[in-house]
Amino acid sequence: MPDHGPTIGLVLGSGCSDAVDGLPAAKVDTDYGAPSSRLYRRDVNGTSVAILLRHGEDHDIPPHAINYRANIAALHASGASSIIALNTVGVITGIAACGTIALPRQLIDYTWGREHTFATGRAAGVRHLEFTDPFSATLRQALVRAALAAEVDCIDGGVYAVTQGPRLETAAEIDRLERDGADYVGMTAMPEAALAAELDIDYAVLALVVNPAAGRGSGSIHADVAINSAAARAAAMRVVEAYVEVSA
Ligand code: HPA
User: Fold this and answer.
1) Which atom of ligand 1 is nearest to the CA of 163?
2) 3 falls in which pLDDT band (50, 70, 90)?
3) Which atom of ligand 1 has the smallest separation from the CA of 211?
4) All residues at 6 or more sequence positions from 145 whose CB lies less than 8 Å from its CB, including other chains
């Protein structure tokens, strides 16, 4: 167990790896295998931030191949009682502008074939996790306050559809997701959110809105992502900083 104060877990998604430059890092292993990256650590006034790069140090792990169980188990073993997850998303409805950030309140899971539970039966137990509210209300509210303190626009709410990837969606698939009630589409919040909940870790997604979803924009999605990522990333990191400051 850790020999320091409270630990905040931070899972960084696409394009955010600069945030760990120069930080000390330790290789860790878990009962579920190796996590996506070394565990980076930042200490702020006695509060420790344990940071993982979801797609690996060379950004070579696609969403469907991430070892989500190892990542969450590694953060749990580091003592994290909360996890802020940065996930890039496309936006389906008019809920948020590209280049901004959002705190989704709900999700719909369309992923398949991922190792998605610690409760695999027999010795590992059987558990029907209550997942009515997939994100921690306490952590979401604290992040809303952090965004206000940092003077960063952050949409509070919306539904995140989690698709399998790695390909992007068709326009018809996006229409279907909208009919289902989704506002954002991304590939990485599940099973991450459920695994964190299984370990009683407060978990919230801070979504980086980087493109209009398929069929919702006028040009190439990759071009939209290139245009909007830096602003969304900067906004998200300002909120994380503000959150860590008040927690420390
Ligand atoms: N679809 C799925 N995942 C994404 C998208 C998208 O449009 N943008 C960023 N992650």
Assistant:
1) 2
2) low
3) 8
4) 246
